[in-house]
Each structure stands twice: as structure tokens, then as C-alpha cells.
Design a protein that fits this description.
Number of helices: 16
Strand content: 15-25%
Bound molecules: ligand TNX
Radius of gyration: 24 Å
Shape: globular
Largest sheet: 9 strands, mixed
Oligomer: single chain
Distance between the termini: 34 Å
């Protein structure tokens, strides 16, 4: 059930009294450029909250405001465990400034003190699932409960979004932190809420990947798929095959310096992601999209001759030599080493856009790679093209264009939905967007939001959908600002597609909530696209 008592907000005077006083800069919400000036019905300051993705159930009583000041304590219920304490410390760090003390764990018989923010892990709340949580905010107390640490972490993200945007800016002075009273029960619709970074076409440093991870966490995304190898570059050290990065990682699209992650850097990314409840999904694309590997290792070419490095943006021209045993030794080395440094259960083998093999050669290759992936203890994922091969229903197919993903559903397998015309963050927003490609169409924010995974394809029912993922291919993207411009706010829209119940989703209210994320994203320094479809709040 979804309710929210917005009535109080429809009275302008009451609204002014409640919001105008509390939000020092509320007046600025009405200072807009003429071309984006909303009609009164599209005024983001009229909505009761701006939580994205929208919780399963939320009731707001705005008059029941909880204020955070130097007397507020963050406490953890006894027996909640080290993870809960870590999440409490993460919350205290967010609240840095106004809070007087670090988080404290209560004694076994101790009640939460008045005016505290209390976090509690309670295994008996298993109905909430691994990622669900309950959050109650009143004038006197904030209580956040979950069955698992993941849920507590997501409850903290909701709490964060209920606080003013100034929470995101360490140096904002006189931050007045308050939250509206709410009762929330929340859990995701889909288990897989992913993003993909193509670090091959253009390399991005580990530090930028961590920043993307932090932004994903704000929107409760939980899978980061790293496209680590393609024609233009190999980006992860494989100890038994050092030339892959030394030579294969030495350039990128346009001929820049390229780069790669050392094992230590990769391990650090994995740990950083895990601390934000995000699983890293490594992809080594094969048998096509492999020019960087072919250029580095002569024996995996059928003629034994390494081709030159490639810095253009064509696809489909490269393939490993699938008839040579050396190729499978190579694949085994790569999968073994990556599996060993990846605690998550997945290995993505790519498998897309192969033009140089016969159908049978391709199928046999996919089937052999699946065995190698399983031997190293991982579940295989591949792009839609792999579905016609005789693969196990435990492998996962990632749909991206008109492909055969439905064949995998027929054998009882699960799919991840990354439909190009909805989720491809490298597509232009409109015809004036400078960056990006347009083969899957122009994707405005409304297009990224307005689709339902359950009805996207007739042969893929909701029960077969593991979730959704938005890939960010980087042929035209060079620096962090470019990545952010293409991903935000469409990745935010995707988070709601993946999390919120279909019946509660609605573009008109989403765009008002999204509008209030403008100052928050600005405070975080995100170079987001100011779509004219959204009546952005400009109070930063
Ligand atoms: C298709 S999606 C590709 C990528 C390109 C992308 C550009 C997929 C599995 N393959 O190799 O980078 O289009 O939008």
C-alpha cells in the first residue's frame, strides 16, 4: 500500500510555514529560468518527499519533523553485529558537523535514548528479505530496522535522501538537518539492479570507479559490471600473461595512453564496492571484441601472428582462434586469475557481436567457456547472443537488442534486461547531445524511466527477470565528467525501474522527485544533464 499525505502541501500557506521556515533556501526553489518554469501542478516543492527509488510503502507526516543537532545520538541495538556498527559509522560520517558524538552500541538491556537515531538488525524480520528495511521517523526518534546489513544500508540511503541536500556538502555552513516524519516499509522489486562501465574503450582510473560506486549506492544499485577487455584495451593484470596489460593495455580509442588496474587496485575496487553492498561483475569479452588480447598473445591467433593494436570504434572484426587448444589454456588462465580475486559469484564472458565464426564454432566455444567458468566456481553471464548455445539454466543471459534471450527463459534460465533503447547510457539524450552514439535511438530521461521489465518482451515474464542493468559504453567518453553527464540522471531513472513496484511508478511524480535531486547531485559535484523534461530545483 502506498499512501502519502500530501494534502497539507496543497495549502500554500501551510506549506510556506512548514517548509519555508525550515529550508533556509526554500525561496530559491521558485527561482527558475523561464524555459523550465513549471506550472503550479509541477512544482517540486509541493511534494511530500523526494525519495528515489520510490519505497514500496511510504506515509509522510511532515509536521512530525525530526531535527538533528549536537545532542542527537546514533545508536546500534545490542547484538546487531559489526556490519551494523560499520553502517552506523557511515551514517555518522554523513552527518558530520552537527553530530556531537560517534555512534555507540547499546548495552543488552539498554533502551535507545530520547531523540536518537537507532539502527537495529533483527533476524526475525526475515519477511523484509535481504535488502528490505523499515524506517520510522517521528519528532522524538528515528528507528531503522532490517533483517540483514544490506537492508540497514539502504535504510540509511533513504534517511540521507530525506535530509536536505546540504548533507552532501561537507563545507556547507550552518547545515540545518531535519527530516519529515515518515513510516516506510521497503524492499526491492528486482534482485539485480546494475550499472556497467566500459573501461576498455577509454580507461578510467580506479578512483573514478569508486566515485561511480558511491553514486550507485545513493540509489540502491547493487551490481557493478566492469567491461575489462575489448578490442581497444585489456585493463586487468593477469599474472600468467603480463603482455595483456603491458602491450594490450597501452592504448585506447583515439590512441591515448590507455591504462589498466593492477591486482591490488582491482581487489580494492571489489572491497570498496562490497562496503556499499555492490557486487563487482568482471567481464572479459570473448571470442570477439578481443583485438587487444590477440595483439598481445600471438598463439591465440589462427595464423600465429599478432595483429597491431586497434584504436578505432568498429566492432565484429576480431575473434580468438577457437580451433586451437592454446586458446582454451589462455581462457582458463584468465578466468582462474579473475575468479580468484573476485568474491562475487559471477563471471561475464561477453559473447556479443561475433562475425568471424560459424554458428557451430561459436556455440561450441560458448559451451566450453561455460565449463571453464564453472570449474573455477563461478556462474557464467553472457550477452543475448549466447542463448542459442546449449548452456545451463544456472547461467545468466543479458538481453541488449533483438536477441535470443527468450530461448534461455524457455530452458528455465534467468535474464538481465539491458534493452538498448531504454538503458544504454551511451545513447544521446536528443539530437543536440554532443557525446554518445545513436544506433539504439535517442533516450531522454522519460524514455529511460517509462518501461516495465515485466512487459518489455512477450516471452520474458517477470519471474524470469533477474533485474535490470544500464551499460555505459565509452567509445565517445573520455573523462569522468563525460561519464557522469551520460549516466545522470538516466541511471537514477533506472534505479526506480529496478526497485519500485510497477503500480506505484509514475513519470509525473518521478520527475518532481528527481527535480529535487538537482541540488544534491550538484553538491556532490556530479556533472548531470539538466533535462528540460524535469523542473529542476536550483537551490545549490
Ligand atoms: C554494442 S552492447 C556493443 C558494444 C558497443 C555498444 C555501443 C554490446 C553487447 N555490444 O560493443 O560499445 O554497442 O553502444
Amino acid at each position: 500500500m502506498v499512501t502519502s499525505d500530501m494534502n497539507v502541501f496543497s495549502l500554500p500557506l501551510v506549506r510556506a510555514a512548514l517548509l519555508g521556515l525550515a529550508l533556509a533556501s526554500a525561496a530559491c526553489t521558485r527561482r527558475r529560468t523561464p524555459e523550465t518554469a513549471p506550472t503550479p501542478a509541477a512544482d517540486p516543492s509541493r511534494i511530500a518527499h523526494a525519495v528515489v527509488p520510490l519505497p514500496t510503502s511510504i506515509q509522510v507526516s511532515a509536521s512530525d519533523t525530526f531535527r538533528i543537532d549536537s545532542t542527537t545520538q546514533v545508536v546500534v541495538a545490542a547484538g546487531s553485529g559489526a556490519e551494523a556498527e560499520r553502517i552506523a559509522a557511515y551514517l555518522v560520517n554523513l552527518l558530520q558537523g552537527p553530530l556531537g558524538a560517534p555512534a555507540r552500541t547499546l548495552a543488552a538491556d539498554e533502551q535507545a535514548p530520547p531523540r536518537s537515531v537507532a539502527l537495529r538488525l533483527d533476524a526475525s524480520k526475515s519477511a523484509l528479505g535481504v535488502e528490505g528495511y523499515e524506517l520510522a521517523i517521528t519528532r522524538d526518534a528515528v528507528t531503522l530496522t532490517a533483517a540483514q546489513p544490506n537492508g540497514l544500508f539502504y535504510g540509511v540511503q533513504t534517511l540521507r535522501q530525506l535530509l536536505p541536500w546540504t548533507i552532501e556538502h561537507r563545507a556547507a555552513l550552518n547545515r540545518r538537518l531535519w527530516m519529515p516524519g515518515v513510516r516506510i516499509t521497503d524492499a526491492p522489486r528486482f534482485a539485480w539492479r546494475g550499472a556497467m562501465l566500459d573501461v576498455s574503450r577509454h580507461f578510467i582510473p580506479a578512483e573514478d570507479v569508486r566515485r561511480y560506486i558511491d553514486l550507485m549506492a545513493l540509489y540502491k544499485l547493487n551490481r557493478l559490471h566492469l567491461h575489462l577487455a575489448d578490442d581497444q584495451g585489456w585493463r586487468i593484470v593477469i599474472g600468467s600473461r603480463p603482455n595483456l596489460t603491458e602491450h594490450g593495455g597501452s592504448t585506447q580509442v583515439g590512441g591515448g595512453r590507455g591504462g589498466y588496474y593492477t591486482k591490488a587496485q582491482y581487489t580494492d575496487i571489489v572491497a570498496y564496492a562490497a562496503s556499499r553492498f555492490i557486487t563487482i561483475v568482471p567481464e572479459i569479452d570473448m571470442p570477439g571484441h578481443t583485438n587487444a588480447a590477440l595483439a598481445s598473445i600471438p598463439e591465440i591467433n589462427c595464423d600465429g601472428v599478432a595483429p597491431p593494436l586497434y584504436t578505432g570504434i568498429r566492432v565484429g572484426f576480431s575473434t580468438l582462434c577457437v580451433t586451437k587448444e592454446e586458446t582454451y589454456v589462455f581462457v582458463d588462465d584468465v578466468v582462474r586469475e579473475i575468479a580468484a580475486m573476485t568474491p562475487g559469484p559471477y563471471f561475464h564472458m561477453g559473447g556479443d557481436e561475433v562475425e568471424k565464426l560459424t554458428h557451430d564454432q561459436y556455440r561450441q566455444f560458448v559451451e566450453r567457456v561455460e565449463k571453464i567458468v564453472q570449474k573455477h566456481g563461478k556462474q557464467m553471464i553472457g550477452w543475448g547472443e549466447i542463448a542459442p548455445a546449449n548452456i545451463s539454466p544456472t547461467s545468466i543471459v543479458q538481453h541488449w537488442r533483438r536477441d535470443s534471450a527468450a530461448m534461455h527463459v524457455a530452458r528455465g534460465g534467468k535474464v538481465i534486461l539491458s534493452p538498448g533503447p531504454k538503458t544504454y547510457l551511451d545513447m544521446k539524450y536528443d539530437s543536440t547531445t554532443t557525446l554518445g552514439l545513436r544506433w539504439a535511438g535517442l533516450i531522454e530521461v522519460r524514455d529511460a524511466y517509462g518501461w516495465d521489465p515485466a512487459t518489455l518482451m512477450p516471452d520474458i515474464p517477470e519471474r524470469a527477470v533477474l533485474g535490470v542493468e544500464a551499460p555505459l559504453w565509452s567509445e565517445t567518453l573520455v573523462k569522468l565528467e563525460d561519464y557522469e553527464f551520460m549516466a545522470f540522471p538516466r541511471l537514477v531513472a533506472l534505479s526506480e525501474v529496478g526497485w519500485s513496484p510497477a503500480a506505484t511508478r509514475d513519470w509525473d511524480t518521478f520527475r518532481l522527485r528527481l527535480a529535487r535531486h538537482g541540488p544534491r547531485l550538484s553538491a556532490l559535484g556530479v556533472n548531470f544533464y539538466r533535462s528540460a523534461q524535469v523542473p529542476w530545483v536550483r537551490e545549490y
